[in-house]
Structures are given as C-alpha cells and as structure tokens.
Amino acid sequence: MAPRAESTFLSLPALYLALLLLSVPLARAQGQKTWCVAKPSSDEATLTANLNYACSQVDCSILQRGCACFYPDNLISHASIAMNLYYQSRGRNYWNCYFKNSALVVTTDPSFGNCVYEYI
Q1: Which is a Gene Ontology cellular component entry for this protein (predicted)?
Q2: Would 4 be classed as within a structural domain?
Q3: 79: domain range?
Q4: Is the dihedral angle over the CA atoms 25, 28, 33, 36 positive or is it negative?
Q5: Is 116 exposed, middle or buried (0-12, 13-18, 19+ CB in 10 A)?
Q6: Mean pLDDT in the chain?
Q7: How crowded is residue 105: how many other Cβ atoms within 10 Å of its Cβ?
Q8: 14 pLDDT higher than 80
Q9: Model confidence at 73, in pLDDT bands (50, 70, 90)?
Q10: pLDDT number for residue 35
C-alpha cells in the first residue's frame, strides 16, 4: 500500500476558530480604547440620518446649546458625538459604528476643549 498524503486543510473547528479570531477588531484585541466618529467624506443627508437615529436611541442632551459639546455647531461634529454615544452604549462592537459605512472606529480620543467624547 502507498503511504497516505497528510491533509493540508484545517479541521473544521480550527477553521471556525481562525475565522472568529480574525473577526475581532485589532483595537479590541489589544485592549485599546475606541471611539466612533463620522467619516469626513459623509454627505449631509447621511450625517443627519445618523444624528437623528443615534439621538432616538441615546441621550444627546450634551449637544444642546449651552452644553459642553454644542460647539463647534456643525453637522459632522454633532453627528460624530451622537454616533459615539450610540457606539459606546451598545458595547463598542464594530457593527455599532457602521452607520451604512459612514463612520470610523478610531483609537485616538477625539475629545476637544470641554467636550469629552464618552468612553464607557
């Protein structure tokens, strides 16, 4: 009898484990803090929809006039803060920062001045 060639394929459980590990975002695997912000290339309609959706799910009172994150009073800033509040409240999973591909997970704290981007 001829010797049998060893299979070079991964076993099904090993393949499943490899795919699972590859799906974990690198930042989470390294224990880094992460935030969600709007992509600068996002259009106004998308940012408005993101802002409205996020604020229907979380408390966005920090964006009101007189609060720490009202300024700069522009759509991308307000949308980023609202999207991050949503992302943080949902467990910082990459899919909670997708917003139809109009958001980015970042590892640099986007806080500025007195406006502190929440990190839970």
Answers
A1: plasmodesma
A2: no
A3: 35-106
A4: positive
A5: middle
A6: 84
A7: 20
A8: no
A9: very high
A10: 97
Q: CA-CA distance, 66 to 96, in Å (whole number)?
A: 28
Query: Which residue shows structure tokens 């408390």?
Result: 59
Buried b (16+ CB within 10 A) or exposed e, 66-103: eeebeeeeebbbbbbbbbbbbbbeeebebebbebeebb
Q: So what's the pLDDT on residue 118?
A: 87
DSSP class of residue 97 equals G
Tokens of 103: 């958001």
Is residue 25 in some structural domain? no
Report residue 23 as tokens. Answer: 């799906």
How far from 67 is each of 61, 64, 90, 109, 116, CA to CA, in Å? 8, 6, 23, 19, 11
The verdict on residue 112 lying in a domain is no
